[in-house]
Amino acid sequence: MPEEVEQSIARLVTKTFCISSIPHEKLGETVVLVVEAEMLLEDEKSIILDQIEKLVHPYEMPKCIYTLTPFPKTDTGKIDRRAL
User: Which residues, including other chains, have CB under 8 Å from residue 70's CB and lie 6 or more apart?
Assistant: First the structure.
């Protein structure tokens, strides 16, 4: 599922990003967007989330955006999702 959401929103996010999840008290886990950046302004986050909402199903919708730099990488250069 994360890869499908990433494909759906790839044209909206110009920086390196990935879809991940974090623990949620009631749901077990919730979807989040992680962007490789020092920071994003709250206005930027709101605009991105508003645009994503138009492209994905409600259960695929990231509930928030986190920034991280640099992204952890595997030996092959891919994003190490487990290390996020």
Answer: 36
**What pLDDT is recorded for position 49?**
96
Q: 37: which 2 tokens?
A: 């950046």
Evaluate whether 36 touches 16 at the Cβ level (below 8 Å): yes
Give this prediction's pTM: 0.89
Rg, C-alpha atoms of the chain: 13
Closest to 65 in 3D by CA, of 41, 3, 10? 41
Express each pLDDT in 17-56 by its tens digit.
Answer: 999 999 988 888 999 999 999 999 999 999 999 999 999 9
Q: What is the DSSP string of 7-75?
A: HHHTTT--S-EEEEEEEETTTEEEEEEEEESS---HHHHHHHHHHHHTTS-GGG--S-EEEESSPPB-T
